[in-house]
Amino acid sequence: MTKTELKEAKERYFMLSKMIKDSTYNSLENETTDQQKERIKKLLKPENYVEFFDYYFGINSGLPLADAPSSQFHHDSYQKVFKDNKIRQFREWYRGAAKSIHTNVGNILHLKENDELFFAVLIGANEGLSKILLSDVQMHLESNERIIKDFGAQLSYGNWADGEFQTKDGRFFKALGLNQPFRGLRFGQYRPDFASVDDCEDRDRAKRPDMVRKYGEKITGDLKKAFHKERGRLIIPNNYIVKDGLLDFLKEKFKDSKHLDISRVDLATKNITAEDARKRTDWEPSWPERYTRADVIDIVEDDDHYTSQREDFNNPIEEGKLFKADTIIHTRIAEHEQWDGILDHWDLSYSGPGDLKAGVLLGIKGIYLYVLEVFCQKCEINSAMEIRAQWVKKYLKKGYTVMGFFDATAAQKIVYTPIILQSAEDNKCPNVPIGLHQEGDKHNRIAAGVGNALFRKILFWDESLKIRSKQDYDLFMKWVLAFEKGMATGDDPADTLERAITLAQTYFGYSKEEGSHKPSFGKKKPRRL
Q1: 65-94 pLDDT, tens digit each
Q2: What domains does the chain contain, in order, with CATH numbers?
Q3: pLDDT over threshold 60, residue 515
């Protein structure tokens, strides 16, 4: 940490300390000594951790640092930490999930006052960042009037700026950068019994296996072996932002440990029930006390797809990692091209404007598949089906009946079918797609189905899509190229493409050999010369 950085950190510390002192003093409660003792006794029970945190640091403390009550995952993860004094817990919580304040302040104080922590080590990506982590602990122990009232004055000697301090009850706190030595850690009779490895993952370092191994072995070897023989809690608060990095190395090393716990919390998950569909609430925030569905959509849309996947959904994808742009083959399609059949498939979502609707129409000629139409928009199902009606009428004029499908579970069919039928009537289009749902691992299926078609060079894209359907085509292609196994959102275009490919290969020509008797749907017209 440079002199300038240290000066700025000290100014930050002074301002926040004053704010904490004033806020917590003004929020002190009038109570008798017996009431205070009873309250403290209740708050120190592990099952009341969330109430404990919110009282001293959170929404009930008077501090402007917290804007919502703590959530269920804060409670659940700490219960495991409290009960297992040798836990190795990975807190893969999305950016903004309060993982640092809970791990490095809330958990620490609760363990300390329950005589479960005597020597805590806070590890940052470097020495400067580790001292910032330590300053957050000292700030509350020194300035939080609620803590001082209940547990007495805390600080004995030392200072976060020097990398260590001790409290009056003999507890010791030390800051270490990942690149500093861990061996031989000891304070009097105490060895470390709690360690936090906070936000130490690095995307650039993940490209250097030797560096990943070096720092990983410092944690699994030097740090772990320095732990107290009876206690040694290790918490790693870091969302999963890169593959083959420090987190993957540590999880591999700890995979056979009975103390391993992986707490993964994404920004939100998607509901899958018919009732949720009727309410149009497809997003379910993991911290509903703080985020609404609208908040989730705003956060996701405010970042590019790759950043959001890494930071919000613990899915470290890189652009073009699976399907490459140079495998996409474009070709000119003749106005009166003759097809063995025409097939379209749609991936519709529960929500209206909140999620993508994706559709694709293929022309089939022997084993070759041609993407003739694409749709990729955030809209109501009715709007998507209006476009489908235009496709159907367009190819009916060319002499083809479109064989159509849409992805739907039994519950989804109940919701979608009336809308689709009404839309068909409104658009005077009697051709209605068939609801068909494919079981099994969706991402494996997409990787195999689309990947196989690209590898065999049997999938072609109508060149004119780049102009006549530019907006839909650009978005559709963006998501197809962004697809990677495990992605939490945005797989709709790749999913509908895979379904269309597989269904086309199932119902139409699949072999060049003479004598192949695959059924052929739709009217064939002789080529006009």
Answers
A1: 788 999 999 999 999 999 999 999 999 999
A2: 3-265 (3.40.50.300), 325-507 (3.30.420.240)
A3: no
